[in-house]
């Protein structure tokens, strides 16, 4: 019995240590973390956008920040829950500070404020 519990604990530790779970688009959290290490800290003002498919199939929308300077769309990492709550409460214009990886089109949110 103790041996089975030990094996289960070791398996759980191995899974949590790897943290390379595949996301919906095939990227992994490990690759996103690597991307963020080569990114720049910046503040971007923009508009939150969450496009839904024309047919309600129960899938979640993909929340993005549209940069007002160049109309570029950025995916949001970390703090996405706060950004989604702001979007759902009607806040669209925001300022986000965080690590920006322009090549991957990702912002790792450190701070988000309504404008």
Structure in a nutshell:
With 115 residues, this protein is α+β, with helices and mostly antiparallel strands. The protein has three helices and five strands; from the N terminus they run H-H-E-E-E-H-E-E. A five-stranded mixed barrel has the order 1-2-3-5-4.
Please provide a written account of the structure.
The protein is of the alpha+beta class and 115 residues long. It is built from three helices and five strands. It has helices spanning 2-18, 29-37, 80-88; strands at 40-51, 62-67, 73-77, 93-101, 106-114. The chain has a five-stranded mixed barrel. A hairpin with a 4-residue loop joins β4 and β5. It is globular. The model is unreliable at 8-25 (pLDDT under 50).
Strand content: 35-45%
- Count helical runs: 3
Radius of gyration based on Cα positions: 18 Å
Content-based structural category: alpha+beta
Q: What is the 3D shape?
A: globular
Taking the sheet with the most strands, its summary is: 5 strands, mixed, barrel
User: How far do the termini sit from each other?
Assistant: 58 Å
Give the beta-strand count: 5
Summed over residues and divided by their number, the pLDDT gives a mean of 76
The neighbouring-strand order within the major sheet is 1-2-3-5-4
Low-confidence stretches: 8-25
- Classify the helix fraction into a percent range: 25-40%
Reading the helices and strands in chain order gives HHEEEHEE
Topology:
Elements: H1 2-18, H2 29-37, E1 40-51, E2 62-67, E3 73-77, H3 80-88, E4 93-101, E5 106-114
Parallel strand pairs: 3-5
Antiparallel strand pairs: 1-2, 1-4, 2-3, 4-5
């Amino acid at each position: 019995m103790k041996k089975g519990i030990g094996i289960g604990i070791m398996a759980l530790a191995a899974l949590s240590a790897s943290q390379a779970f595949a996301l919906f688009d095939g990227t992994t959290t490990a690759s996103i973390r690597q991307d963020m290490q080569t990114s720049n800290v910046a503040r971007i003002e923009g508009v939150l956008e969450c496009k839904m498919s024309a047919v309600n199939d129960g899938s979640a929308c993909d929340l993005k920040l549209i940069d007002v300077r160049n109309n570029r769309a950025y995916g949001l990492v970390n703090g996405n829950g706060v950004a989604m709550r702001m979007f759902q409460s009607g806040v669209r214009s925001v300022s986000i500070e965080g690590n920006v990886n322009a090549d991957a089109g990702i912002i790792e949110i450190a701070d988000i404020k309504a404008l």
